[in-house]
């Protein structure tokens, strides 16, 4: 097991699941880390456990890498938790398959375990589902250092409690993931994107909602502020319009253009079309939050399409750059610093189910969490001694 | 509240008719507060309880715990909110699955999960067992469609889990609660996602000489990269039963039938259907029928969805199994089932979700014949062990319930089960919520005072 010294915490890098279990057993407080792409989440955890007697250990999972089992005909793949998603993506692509939930920061070194632990999904989440819908099985080290397996390796399983879903978004507070089994799907043969410009957000949001009522099955619908696009891709992609609505459809090549025509009918305006590498670059950029890469802090808010306009007013008051993804179910906001919890609560009451600070070391990483009593019980069951922190 | 023995008898069993237990009493709440009050009273007196809807569980999940209270939720059947703009509905647990889609239909929306019992089963039960259905292949199970819950924990505490967004923050507590088989409490309010009705649906029915050929056709469809909404297979005996019961006019003399359904935007469905049709034609089908309208389509599905109950016409009794194997090993599993059935001298009808590798062997027996029910249960056990050995699951959509609890310990190692048991104990320190279900016998024992005494608790 490799050991290095970082920020006053030992970093252990186990080479197999057994070593990961030993590392947990031998430590008083453990913060798991994958590729470190969602550094705010790790930093916030480090801040919350700083000063723990006996020290804090980071368990780095990046050496736990590799595909353990992949049979394309099964639509399932089992990987060690530290496997990079871009490596996995390449293997899947060769077999004509993909992970439809579009894991954020995959292009920047995000790992399978990190995708599950952060519970984050990208623009492609809209049509086929989020990371929670594609995690079939997990193996993890619990707070007592035991290796536990849950779920399974087949696409359908209703045996036992669904711990694989529970671990989605658990932020390393319930255990160290060492293995993940994903469901995968055949990749669509072709796709196309139309861009629609708007002066006013309410018009853009109304068009977005009209699209959702159709049976056109767009697989991504994102609404982005010009300033955000400019930060990522420069003026030629951003255009002059204050807001742009990006709609992606996929399927047989022959039908993509016709479906985009129908999308234009619903929106009520002609769209600028993107195909091939520029289209790919745009969506990879949105997925990997390129537009927010220089922002000191990034918030992710969970909301609904009907609340976009009111939420936007609140985010404007917080001085945020805004990107509404997954047809308005997810709002990304880049801000100068993570606002105080009380400010977030007062500004966002009723506008979002919850907020998570993906970047920005200061402040609480998540606010407005529902089900806290239930979550505390879950925590006590899997980590009774508080080895993974967060027992405050 | 009911305590008259004759009236109680209705509640002593569910779809798994072989398990019976007289309840202490049955309560019929109309409001969530009444559920809370009942659960609190049970907690204070350490009395076990089970919540139930229409009692369609095939794994004995809603059979009363010994000396326990039944909370019958059928009267909590209001759709509290149906919001077409946000594409969601908030419902009480007693709402019947199919009623929700009917209520959403005027807005061009529907609720996707479609268990075969959807015209009678309730959404509360679907949540408890993470029910599946024919369209899981493309749309996923109940869990993939539940956004938020209001739940009463076994000590009477009320919690809200999730919300109304597609995405949830923090650990996926809704995901944990769905499919927890009533062991973590009772959902009294359920927020689900509604989907726009597909623009086009195309369904075909193909007849094959043998089950193996039908299985190979499924493999060819999967290989092609098409993503059908559903792929279902029925074997000779299941066809015969369905024919006798609902006169679906299925092809005569077929060894197996394959139903494939595509749905989605019209252009895509039409071109995919051409590919599918060609593929099926080359797969050795003896007859291919394409539903030309909704009526024909419904008729094809009527035979499939009614197959379980139809088997009742061929045999005085039967056991419905629900196991999953890796899809590529379906053929192998079916062969093994055939051999096991022959050795047991029993007939097995197969109806299954081929695209998911989810088998539903129906084991026919006559309980009046000496030892036949025992042999049927042994055969069912042997089939589940085939699923476990092949790396599958002991249940794809019916849950573990009472029927399969001894197999959970064969599918999972002791440390895995203990993690689940610790979760159970934190949620339900007295072990009163649906006591005796899911965990293997002996793993969760009721002590003299009714306290849950788990091995880990005993150890320290």
UniProtKB/TrEMBL annotation, chain A:
**Sorted UniProt keywords:** FAD, Flavoprotein, Oxidoreductase
Q: Which Pfam families does UniProt cross-reference here?
A: FAD-oxidase_C, FAD_binding_4
What range(s) does the FAD-binding PCMH-type domain occupy?
4-187
| Statement: the UniProt record of this protein carries the keyword Flavoprotein | yes
Q: Which cofactor does it need?
A: FAD
Matching InterPro entries:
FAD-bd_oxidored_4_C, FAD-bd_PCMH, FAD-bd_PCMH-like_sf, FAD-bd_PCMH_sub2, FAD-linked_Oxase-like_C, Oxid_FAD_bind_N
The record's listing under Gene3D superfamilies reads: 3.30.465.10
Q: Does the keyword Oxidoreductase apply?
A: yes
Q: What is this protein's record name? A: FAD-binding protein
Q: Which organism is it from?
A: Carboxydichorda subterranea
Q: What is the lineage of its organism?
A: Bacteria, Bacillati, Bacillota, Limnochordia, Limnochordales
